[in-house]
Amino acid sequence: MNMLQQIATIAAASPEKIAYRSEGEVISYGDLWQQSNEVAAAIRASNLKKNSPIAIYGHMSPQQIVAFLGATKAGHPYIPLDISIPNERVLHILEASKSSLLLSTEHLDLQVATPHHTVEEMRQKGEHAEDDTATWIEEDQVFYIIYTSGSTGKPKGVQISHANLSHFVDWLGEECSLPNGVFLNQAPYSFDLSVMDLYPALALGNELHALTKKQIEHAASLFEELQQSKIAVWTTTPSFAKICLMNPEWNEQMMPNLQTFLFCGEVLPNSVAKELLIRFPQAKVFNLYGPTETTVAVTAVEVTTELLTKYEQLPIAKASSSKLKVLNDTLQSVEDGQKGELVIFGDTVSSEGYLYATEQSEEVFKDFDGERIYKAGDLGYLKDGYIFYAGRSDFQVKLHGYRMEIEEIEKKIEALKEVASCAVLPIKKDEEVVSLTAMIVLHDELVDKPFKMTKHLKALLLQSIPSYMVPKKFTYLAAMPLNINGKIDRKRLAVETDL
Ligand code: AMP
Question: pLDDT, tens digit, for every residue of 398-429?
């Protein structure tokens, strides 16, 4: 059964069951199904270009899920856009993706050429519509497109097919023996981590409990919400769990139903996993690995006390995994202990690659003995029957769980009229990136205090990139140190500026 069929079966069998809860708002499986039929009917009536993407702007509301299902039932992939994405970037994504429609659940103060409606308006247009499976997204068609930071200076759209998604959900359910119960959703839908809780929850007929940005920002309300939530499956980045661990009362007594922790997206520190197993002795903790390009995650290792004692750095996969290999430049296996590139195989590798970016796709999606593979740009090594992560081979970083290309940030800063050149340096503590510093050469000499220029430049940057991508510190230089090839000498820059 594919994803839409699975949800249809649950909606028919248990229409009263709660599918989704967010800030006190709930929607049942029956209503989710009916309302998405209404959106789908209104989309069909709009006569959009076949299979053209539909952008869906909002933040954690049940109506967003209604719109996701409505779009795919009408035969269109959707592009989730969270409110944290600045308008300029929304505009770029709408244009670059050639979206035929923009649906929103939140206010969007932006003039766009793309036809724009609220989800509510669409539901009214399609009121009382019935199921029409004839237009549903086929298995080999794109189900969703998630935009992620791009080294060219522009975000790139990763296309995931209906089959990719169904394979991922089936694999995750089995690999992590997902229990029934309430699933937590913390990551906004424009991040692929959200797919790890949204579709497994819906496919199993469970309730998804979403946390909004506002709830997360207020510690007291966050823990009150968690206490009342009956959450059984926890999916977040390790960074978010680290924040929760700062509250000593976050433990099994507060969340007695919690059975499974799923972590993905960045290094899971030994100390975080260890503390979780102390605070939640009945729960299982999984370290999952995978990029957006291969549908969220492709490997999982259960973190046991034995692993915690043996390895300071936790493994990301078993060496026997059929989906992840450590290979050299000529795609041959490497010896134990030798560093190589992490290459991903299997039925969740994006079948379509990046949207309207053939060249970029061809660089990383390759054919290997007739099989489509993805070269993740991650490094790793084999040891004791496990695969360990060993950083990146490029300038991509993870900061507080967010994926970003340093080159994209640099290009955005260099596009500002005040800036002559720029290099962004990741600041690390114990191998973890903890902040970014922008080294800047201005066209004109600074006449005012540097902090005033920094404030000005940061405000300009926030118009085009999300706040988590804006470097914390700005340092102004008279000239950029160059190496003999004429490129920015990043090593010297770090040493000379004492970073
Ligand atoms: P994203 O596409 O946002 O999921 O980011 C994918 C990248 O996050 C991977 O290519 C890795 O660099 C990193 N990543 C994902 N999972 C892990 C993990 N368990 N340990 C270390 N890095 C990870």
Answer: 999 999 999 999 999 999 999 999 999 999 98
Closest CA to 316 of 331, 328, 306, 303: 303
Task: Assess whether 367 and 403 both reside in one domain.
Answer: no
| Domain-embedded: residue 391 | no
- CATH number of the domain bearing residue 159: 3.40.50.12780
pLDDT of 497 reads: 67
The answer to whether residues 186 and 139 belong to one domain is yes
pLDDT in tens, 450-479: 999 999 999 999 999 999 999 999 999 999
Domain end among 382, 414, 435:
382
DSSP helix/strand/coil, 391: strand
In whole angstroms, what is the distance from residue 340 CA to residue 91 CA?
38
Q: 173-208, pLDDT tens digit by residue?
A: 999 999 999 999 999 999 999 999 999 999 999 999
CATH code for the domain in which residue 445 is found = 3.30.300.30
Q: Whose CA is nearest to atom 3 of ligand 1?
A: 403
pLDDT attached to residue 499: 59
- The answer to whether residues 176 and 199 belong to one domain is yes
Q: Which atom of ligand 1 is nearest to the CA of 392?
A: 12
Q: Which of 403, 405, 468 to mutate to test the pocket of ligand 1 (most atoms within 8 A of CB)?
A: 403
Picking from 497, 445, 495, the residue whose alpha carbon sits closest to that of residue 474 is 497
Is 387 a domain residue?
no
The pLDDT of residue 447: 87
Tell me, yes or no, whether 252 and 320 share the same domain.
Answer: yes
Domain with 186 in it: 3-382
Q: What residue type is assigned to position 374 of the chain?
A: Y
Pocket of ligand 1 from Cβ distances under 6 Å: 148, 192, 264-268, 287-289, 291-292, 316, 376, 378, 389, 392, 398, 403
Q: Is 303 left (phi over 0), alpha (psi -120 to 50) or beta?
A: beta
SS3 179: coil
Ligand 1 atom closest to Cα of residue 296: 4
Question: Rounded to the nearest whole angstrom, what is the distance from the C-alpha of residue 75 to the centroid of ligand 1?
Answer: 30
What's the domain count of the chain? 2
> Tokens 């299982």 correspond to what residue?
284
Co-location of 180 and 71 in the same domain:
yes
**pLDDT tens digit sequence for 263-319:** 999 999 999 999 999 999 999 999 999 999 999 999 999 999 999 999 999 999 999
Measured by CA distance, the residue closest to atom 6 of ligand 1 is 291
Please check whether residues 346 and 486 belong to one and the same domain: no
Query: Is 301 a member of any domain?
Result: yes
For residue 379, is pLDDT > 90? yes
Q: Are strands 419-429 and 432-442 parallel, antiparallel or unpaired?
A: antiparallel
